[in-house]
Predict the structure.
Amino acid sequence: MGTHDEDGVARRRFDVADAAPLLLDGRGVVTSWTREAARLLGYSAADAVGRDLAGLLTPGDAGRVAEILDRCRRDGGWSGLLSARRGDGRPVPVMARITCADEPGGADRRLVLLSEMGDAPGWTMSRSVLEQMVSGSPIGIAIVDTDLRFVWSNDALARFGGGRPEERLGLRLGDVQPGLDAEAAEAQMRRVLADGATVVGYEHVGHLRTAPHRETAQVLSFTRLEDDHGNPVGVYYTVVDITDRHRARQRLALLDRAGRSIGSSLDIARTAQELADAAVPGFADAVAVDLPAPVLHGAEPTVDPTGPVPLHRAGVRVTEPDSPHGTAPRTGAAPSPDTAPPAGSPPSAPVDHPADSPPVRCLLTGRPWRGERLDVAAQPWLRNLPVVPSPGESVSVLIVPVRARGTTLGVTTFLRRGPREPFDADDLALAEDLVSRAAVCVDNARRYTRERDAALVLQRNLLPHRLPEQDAVEVAVCYRPADELTGLGGDWYDLIPLSAARVALVVGEVPGHGIDAAAAMGRVRTAVRTLAALDLPPEEVLAHLDDLVARMAREEGLDAGTQAQGAGCVYVVYDPVDGRCTMAAAGHPAPAVVLPDGEVTFVDLPQGSALGLGGPPFESTQLTLPEGSTLALHTDGLLAQGSAWALDTGRTRLRRALERRSPALDLTCRTVIEALVPARPYDDVALLMARTRRLSPDRVADWELPADPAAVAEARRTASRRLAEWGLPELSFTTELVVSELVTNAIRYAVGPIRLRLIRERSLVCEVFDGGATAPHLRHPRTTDEGGRGLLLVSQVTERWGTRFLGEGKIIWAEQSLTEPGV
């Protein structure tokens, strides 16, 4: 027979599930016949039982029966090819397996399993070759009776523990392998005996008695054996070792879990802790992640190897030493996730590593280090491990550098204790893969920390540090950004003191988040403050702002100008003298108003287009608010639900939140934010609440003046008397000078009625109204000029002055600071 035929037969496996079983006595006489044997050889049970095995074979193989039975008695079994003779006389090539099935104290029995070879090429190959193929199979095979006691097993099964075949006879699985979960395997056997359904691919994971600390895995298959009446006579099963595949699957599962759990935030300490949590307890008994202090603050790592190197223990995880696969943190050990500080908390105290220790060498070289069976007495640096080994205890240690983008950011130390298997080369490769995934997240968190610090500095300089003190409104502000990465968005708020004790309230937003949006927001906010200083009406402020943003977009392309396009803004001017409130909006929600009785309304405010996009002229709305009313200016994020702005639903929710008033305005503002805005909102949210006040009538004085130069002197005397009533006689000289110059200027150059008004607030305001439309301006007169010194003089003796235009004329005003507190 050729080599090709022999290889073909060798590749055919002896399929126990398809074999036909029968029983022989010690002399080779058939004592039990099964239906499978009848189908294979064509004999009925009556014809076969009592017949010698030789009578079932062709003459060529009949003479070998005595030798085969003798080998069975000597070796416990025999396997090989035979040529059987069917009842009709035709030869049938079969693969035969004969094993001893003796019962203790009973008669000799032989179990014969016959499997038809059919037309397989090479079935006539050398019997010895085929016998070696079957007996040398790497698959463990065993047969148990209905009491689950071994009646036969092959040599390959001994590799899975439990002893040689002759040592198993008459014993159960739990007797030969007490460390194995025998109950689970025997439960499968009983189920097969009960219902006859073959079980294929049953996985078992455990520890062999020969290697109690090494986890092994096998796949078992179970098939029921029946007699000729279909009654179960036992179970035979096969065992295949899949430990390597199981460990590879565990490694992949570990990497998968690590990929899903590491990097859930951009907090460096939390990321380090997630790395430690991912590796314990499955891969190591303890893990520590040590990082240089600069890394924790977003800077580049620096290490001085000339002395002990301080590293901060940013993440640590420890399990019970006696439970390699436990999860409980060891008492007195470093904290687990349940006891570890929350994300964002300060790192633990530094751990000083000796200059020549493996952690420092890994940090300097960027290469990992592995040590097996280390003793703390010989390696003093081991005292820096998250768990200090007991005297005489040996540990296995892996140290892997946390390295990303060519920079070593720290080291990760993995520890296995006591009897657990030391780390091997495969473990080192797995640890490097695990740490490399975390290293990218740590580096991202480090870079984010640096960028976030820069963004926070920018934020502190762009948003008001504190709102200016004034008497027109009581103010409370809450701001919650949506950008988790920088904590900064494009929303802003402001309160700008205006002339005559008035204030401008502003809330706006620039599209987008992060530093670019914040920079654009800062430019728009600065522009608003500049325009507010011109004392323009709200609709004119927005018109100038719209032109400015459009010009920025044209000139700067994709820079801050484009970022500011589409910005929204609401601009409100409140006058505490008469309670008038004037406002205009550019692509922004209208404010809500809470009246003193608690009723909540929304201002019917004409909506202009967003800034920089062009459109029809802006329109303003004016209303008079009772004292104690509250204006709620907000960005559209306060009304947002999910990813859309539902105006009606958002207003309903806001109305309900505003109706739940608190005595303190700050508390009301926070309550509204907590009620409407999640911890991580879809959009930035700014809420500015202003409770209106009124200046009492005794703090305001006004007079109608005739357009007669003689009225100037009377105006000075009237103003001086009012200052005396207010207890401000020290301001009389300056005020008389200001009144004289402003009234004289109005009489000389203006037309229509003239009014003088004094307002006592945090400053003393002097206003003169006339019907003229021309703006005065400062001049520096020559020595020979007879006039032109009035406004120059006013500007030098007052804190500030300006002009405010009204529909019917203009107001020239000047302010003097009141230095006495409480006046």
User: Anything to note?
Assistant: The first strand starts at residue 20 and ends at 25. Confidence is low (pLDDT under 50) at residues 1-13, 120-125, 322-347, 783-787. The first helix runs from residue 3 to 11.
